[in-house]
Amino acid sequence: MTRLIWPIAITLFLASATAHGQTGYQLGHGYDLGPFNFGGYGAVAAYVPDRGSGTISAEDISLFATGHISQLFNPFIEAELTHLDFVHPGSSHSSGDSGSLVLERLYDDMNLTDSFTLRLGKMLAPVGEWNEIHAAPLVLTAVRPAVTYRNFSEYLTGASLLYSNPNGSVPDLQFYWQPDREFSERPSTLTFHTYKMVEGLHVKFPISLLDQIGVSVQHSQDFQGVDQALVGIDFKYTLQKLTLQGEWTYSALSGRTSGLVRKNEWGGYLAASYNFAEEWSAYSWYEEFSNRTSFAAARDLLFGVAYRPDAAIVIKLEYLQNIGGKPVNPTGLFASWSVLF
Amino acid sequence: MIRPLLVLAILITVLPLQSSSAEQLLIIANPSVGDIAPLSLKEVAAIYLLRITAWPNGAHIVPVNREIASEVRTDFTAAVLQQDTTSLAAYWNAMHFQGKLPPVVQESELAMLAFVQRVPGAVGYISADTPAVGVKVLGHVD
Predict the structure, then answer these.
(1) What tens digit of pLDDT does each residue of A194-247 get?
(2) What is the DSSP secondary structure assignment for residue B11, as one 8-state letter?
(3) Cα separation, A180 vs A197, whole angstroms
(4) Sign of the CA dihedral with B54 first, then B57, B60, and B65 last
């Protein structure tokens, strides 16, 4: 239980800082120290499955730092402690899984012009919007649809060229290339495939400040020798209090596919959320995900409600029901509290 | 009878002035930004939406905002950014996670002015009533 103390201490500190409106610090915007900004996010989650024992865990405790030193030196680093169980009766450990410390991102942004940036290092792969802003306080649901993190390489280590028009009048573009294996690979317990080559393109058509249509293309090769060609589309569209969003990806698999039951992998989700009060929203998504190793597509339906007392804090309660196929996300009740600081 | 008329005359004289001064803002920047042309409202919006992040001389832009309850911020947001507060908060939080720094918040007109005077690359806005001392005026919002 002592593990619960420090997340609570951080919460109390942040709540206190917000309440006192400290000048120079705003919840969600990080803390400035010279040319650096230090921020992060934390998420504590409780999961009660229909079958088996429940868990309470620090799903993510992430710290990141951004530096603006010069036009060509703008470093960014993010490290994350993930899946740290506080309570897990079924675990072989005395108090559950001890978590994994992972390097999420480590790169430098070189601002070549107003519109072009060259990024070198380890970064998130721009496949869909969810993967790029996957922090719990920023995304719709505590349970992540499988299509937002499977069927592609979530990370890449290499070079990326980003184009962003200052007026937003032309679509944003991002080309990327990973020539070799990922730097500081995540442990096998956290990944589905390990890639040795990744290349791709993401195009984002802005509709409004938060709404967009994105198109993703990615070609990759994993260490099992499976060659993967992905195409995907994602969108977000707001109609007053109603927001619709979704993502769909399809991968054609070739190369060493002998251990797979199919030569493709695909999935898609469609979500709707409705702000029924200033700080409250109700939401739902439906997903189908056809895994390369399963004959039938998993079909999941989720309902939830979120309370957002601040733009950087959100409490979610949701129920997921697997309604077909081999479950990707098990049926059960999920609750989470998360903060961006 | 003279007294109410006097009050009415004062109100007629003062109210329009208060209204126009509350709406007019000056866009100010630290003198380190160099000799640059006045900014259009579109360019100011692009700076605050983090789509323009460097001055023409290559220096990093540090946008500064007033606190959320400030009337000046409300006027600035309506006239320049043309977005609602909730959407902006969500947008800036997402940008922060992606390594772009949201505007720094200063909680008074004087704090805003002092910050922009002091910090290289800083850009902010003040009411036209406040003397823009020690900063460069890059535009105004009517």
Answers:
(1) 898 999 999 999 999 999 999 999 999 998 899 999 999 999 999 999 999 999
(2) H
(3) 5
(4) negative
**Cα–Cα distance, A144 to B8 (Å, whole number):** 62
Residue with tokens 């802005």: A206
CB contact under 8 A, A114 and B101: no
The verdict on domain B23-141 having CATH code 3.40.190.10 is yes
DSSP type of residue B110: H
List chain B residues with CB under 8 Å of A240: none
Look at residue B31 in the predicted model and tell me its pLDDT: 96
User: How far is B72 from chain A, CA to nearest CA, in Å?
Assistant: 17
Chain A's closest residue to B69, CA to CA, is A21
Distance CA A260, CA A274 (A): 40
How is chain A split into domains, by residue range? 2-340
Q: What share of chain B is helix, strand, coil (3-state, %, to 5)?
A: 45, 20, 35
pLDDT tens column, B12-38: 444 443 444 446 999 999 999 988 999
End-to-end CA distance of chain B: 38
List the Cα angle A199/A205/A209 in 5-degree steps.
120
- Whether chain B has a CB inside 8 Å of the CB on A34: the answer is no
> Where in A10-97 does DSSP place strands (E)?
31-33, 36-49, 55-67, 74-87
CATH annotation of A2-340: 2.40.160.10
Helix (H) or strand (E) holding B62: strand B62-66
- Residue B136 near residue B20 (C-beta atoms within 8 A): no
Q: Please count the CA atoms within 13 angstroms of the CA of A124 that sit on its side-chain side.
A: 20
Query: According to the model, what pLDDT value does residue A24 have?
Result: 66
Cβ contacts (< 8 Å) between B111 and chain A: which residues? Answer: 23
A17: phi then psi, degrees, rounded to nearest 5? -60, -40
Neighbours of A200 (CB within 10 A): 24
Query: Which residue in B66, B96, B118 has the most chain A C-beta atoms within 10 A of its own C-beta, making it the best mutation to test that interface?
Result: B96
Q: What pLDDT digit, counting tens, does each position of A71-86 carry?
A: 999 999 999 998 888 8
How does strand B122-127 pair with strand A155-163? unpaired
DSSP assignment letter at B130:
S
Instruction: Sort strands A155-163 and A116-124 into parallel, antiparallel or unpaired.
Output: antiparallel
